[in-house]
Design a protein that fits this description.
The structure is a single chain. The protein has 163 residues and is α+β, with helices and mostly antiparallel strands. The chain has two domains: 65 residues, Nuclear Transport Factor 2, Chain: A, CATH 3.10.450; 80 residues, Nuclear Transport Factor 2, Chain: A (Roll), CATH 3.10.450.40. Helix content is 26%, strand content 43%. The chain is built from four helices and eight strands; from the N terminus they run ααββββαββββα. The longest helix has 15 residues.
Length: 163
């Protein structure tokens, strides 16, 4: 299923129509993919909250509003679907090529993808979790699929900084 089909499913649902009546200023901010799960997030700048719609198969099953975790002074940017020229499956495939070329010794066991608009542009922000407890983060252009950024981090280092 491509991104536009997912958005159409959400926006045609009764959950979304009812919610949109009281959130007219909200706009599409992200799509989150993990295996067969998909979440679509809309940000309402008037409340500074994100409402996430969950898709299960082809049904919108629930939504929830929550606080947004963002750096102070950063804005949640509008996600323009017209600028998404590759689908999430292709993006994940391209990210795995970046991983094989740059981090070939790392064995990946889990991945998740966030389609979002960041300061560097609209990206597929892909995180690959490795068996060595590291994360490989790859940001791909939604228009070309080119790798804009990539790096590897140890989950153990992240845990130490939080103590």
């Amino acid at each position: 299923m491509d991104v536009q089909d997912i958005i159409d499913l959400v926006q045609k649902s009764e959950f979304f129509k009812t919610w949109k009546e009281t959130h007219s200023h909200a706009y599409l901010a992200h799509l989150f993919f993990e295996q067969e799960q998909c979440q679509v997030g809309y940000f309402d700048h008037s409340t500074e909250k994100m409402t996430t719609f969950f898709l299960q198969e082809e049904n919108v099953i629930e939504s929830q509003e929550s606080e947004v975790f963002k750096e102070p002074g950063k804005k949640i940017l509008f996600l323009d679907i017209a600028k998404v020229h590759i689908n999430p499956q292709k993006a994940l495939s391209l990210a795995k090529k970046v991983q094989e070329e740059n981090y070939h010794g790392e064995m990946v066991f889990k991945s998740f993808t966030i389609l979002q608009h960041l300061e560097i542009g609209q990206v597929f922000n892909i995180t690959l979790v490795t068996q060595a407890m590291k994360t490989i983060n790859i940001k791909l252009s939604t228009e070309t699929g080119a790798a804009l950024q990539h790096h590897i981090s140890s989950l153990m280092d992240m845990a130490r900084t939080e103590e």
